[in-house]
Write a structure and sequence with these properties.
With about 475 residues, this protein is α/β, with parallel strands linked by helices. About 50% of the residues lie in helices and about 20% in strands. It has helices spanning about 30-40, 55-70, 80-100, 110-130, 145-155, 170-175, 180-185, 195-210, 240-250, 260-270, 290-300, 325-345, 360-370, 385-390, 425-435, 440-455, 455-480; strands at about 5-10, 15-20, 20-25, 45-50, 70-75, 135-140, 160, 190-195, 215, 220, 225-230, 275-280, 310-315, 350-355, 370-375, 400-405, 415-420. The longest helix is centred in the last third of the chain and has 24 residues, at about 455-480. The structure holds GDP-alpha-D-glucose. GDP-alpha-D-glucose (GDG) binds near residues 30, 164, 360, 381 and 382. Keywords: Glycosyltransferase, Transferase.
Length: about 475
């Protein structure tokens, strides 16, 4: 029986240093949920960075011991590797380039060297633990070289790879000095999965143009094997969002959390008051300044909505060591200040801005209470927030405004779709969302709910694993010929 080895930059658990030593907290993130059944049931192991740098051998042992209880194995990264591999090549080279921010992309040899080194370190950790014929599932843009390193050293392994961010057009990839190595790194896999058909198509075109391999529909033909390319749009834990939203809705007002009561009070303090919600990591790909400008334009065009609608903007701190993120934070602070200064009154803040993360329960309360979700990324691999908002709308009253640049827009066709760079159109979309008749809302939400309930996070993981196992059968047929 082959085992599953999962590799991702971060482990599905967090290790923290406290006064009493190291502590471990499981993460409730989507990936961890989707892979839980495979990870726990089949004696599999998850390899990744535990988020902590042990200072002594004793601490290192302590971390290894804690992780063992969760079937996790650490790859320890030091300060220099975090700077060059994580902040550097991953987040200052690949992240901007793959999201079409060519002007932010840094080309730096030391970043590249560290990136290659960390990918080798992941390979060492996997190989040390892999038995003959094991299956490895590698995740995301931090580990693009890993499939091929593994292939060369351990041809017996079955290797799957899933990219969580967009794969951009060849015109972007071609500017990267290490473009051949990156594409070739991925081709070590037996199966490469993307969120959307467009990303898969871009990848295939880069393979053809950079490496000249033959492609037959979704199979890349290498000298002695084939690589399958396929589309697996990542879903959410639908049941979890739906059941929490139902529970919250059934609670009498006095039993609700303080934060939820605050939202209720805000909405009831004036007849027909509305709430627009946006949630994202503070990232330049998420189109936050454009969104604020669209909201400002909406308030200019529709003065009758002043005091009647607020935008709750939850912005989660992210990659705070990278310069562009610091600049963006300052830009957002100023924009929010300007809008509130220009339109705000003693009773009303147009933008209610949080720069922090909130506990899961508060997240669901926000989803349930918001009349409109305004999600306007300039580029986004998928955007799970859009799906979570829809799943939480158990009363079917809500409108989603979604950027056409988010992978999720391919599955959520009933949303109001906007080009986030078109500020006047986004402002109009806000007006249309706020005036949408109940019947139309219900129809749109129901259709989207049915779709994302069917293809949830569990289905996503099982479809990927099914396709990966199929490559094993294909390989044995190929060898038998
Ligand atoms: C990458 C790709 C792709 C957010 N704030 C809080 C909180 N969250 C949770 C949301 C959601 C997740 O974080 C964010 O997921 P997204 O998909 O929206 O975005 P990225 O973080 O950029 O993820 C993206 C994804 O990978 C999966 O492949 O969709 O395109 O960029 O689940 O609920 N959770 C809590 N408090 C918060 O304040 N508890």
């Amino acid at each position: 029986m082959s085992r599953l080895i999962i590799a991702s930059n971060r482990l599905p658990v967090m290790i923290n240093r406290s006064a009493d030593g190291m502590t471990i907290t499981p993460s409730a993130g989507g990936l961890a949920t989707g892979l839980k059944s495979y990870h726990k049931d089949s004696n599999s192991v998850w390899i990744g960075w535990p988020g902590v740098m042990p200072e002594t051998k004793k601490e290192e042992k302590e971390v290894i011991g804690l992780l063992e209880t969760e079937q996790c194995l650490p790859v320890f990264l030091n300060e220099e590797l975090i700077t060059n591999y994580y902040d550097g090549f991953s987040n200052a080279t690949l992240w901007p380039l793959f999201h079409y921010f060519a002007e932010f992309t840094e080309f730096n040899e030391s970043y590249w060297e560290s990136y290659s080194k960390v990918n080798e370190m992941f390979a060492d950790a996997i190989i040390e633990n892999a038995e003959e014929g094991d299956v490895v599932w590698v995740h995301d843009y931090q580990l693009l070289l890993l499939p091929n390193i593994l292939r060369e050293r351990r041809p017996d392994l079955t290797i799957g790879f899933f990219l969580h961010i967009p794969f951009p057009s060849y015109e972007l990839i071609r500017i990267l000095p290490w473009r051949e190595q990156i594409v070739n790194g991925l081709l070590g896999a037996d199966l490469i999965g993307f969120h959307t058909y467009d990303y898969a198509r871009h990848f295939i075109s880069s393979v053809k143009r950079l490496l000249g391999h033959d492609v037959d529909f979704n199979q890349i033909k290498l000298e002695n094997r084939q690589v399958m390319i396929d589309v697996f749009p990542m879903g959410i834990d639908y049941e979890k969002f739906e059941s929490h939203a139902l529970e919250i809705q059934s609670k009498p007002i006095q039993d609700r959390s303080k934060e939820h009561q605050d939202i209720d009070r805000f909405l009831l303090s004036m007849p027909n008051r509305k709430l627009i919600l946006s949630i994202d990591r503070l990232d330049y790909t998420k189109g936050i300044p454009q969104r604020l400008n669209a909201f400002r334009e909406f308030l200019m065009k529709h003065p009758d909505y002043r005091e009647r609608v607020s935008l709750i903007m939850l912005t989660v701190p992210s990659r705070t060591d990278v310069e562009q993120y610091q600049n963006l934070k300052n830009e957002i602070d100023v924009l929010v200040g300007n809008i509130n200064g220009e339109f705000g009154t003693l009773n009303w803040n147009p933008v209610i801005y949080f720069y922090r993360s909130v506990p899961f329960n508060n997240l669901i309360e926000l989803y349930s209470s918001a009349d409109v979700a305004l999600l306007t990324p300039l580029r986004d691999g998928m955007n799970l927030v859009a799906k979570e908002y829809i799943a939480s709308k158990v009363n079917k009253k809500g409108v989603l405004i979604l950027s056409e640049m988010a992978g999720a827009s391919k599955e959520l066709g009933e949303a109001i779709s906007v080009n986030p760079n078109n500020i006047p159109d986004t402002a109009d979309a806000i007006y249309r969302a706020l005036t949408k008749p109940d019947k139309e809302m219900e129809k749109a939400i129901t259709a989207m709910q049915q779709r994302i309930k069917r293809y949830d996070i569990h289905k996503w993981a099982s479809e990927f694993m099914k396709a990966l196992n199929k490559t094993i059968e294909k390989r044995s047929e190929h060898h038998a010929r």
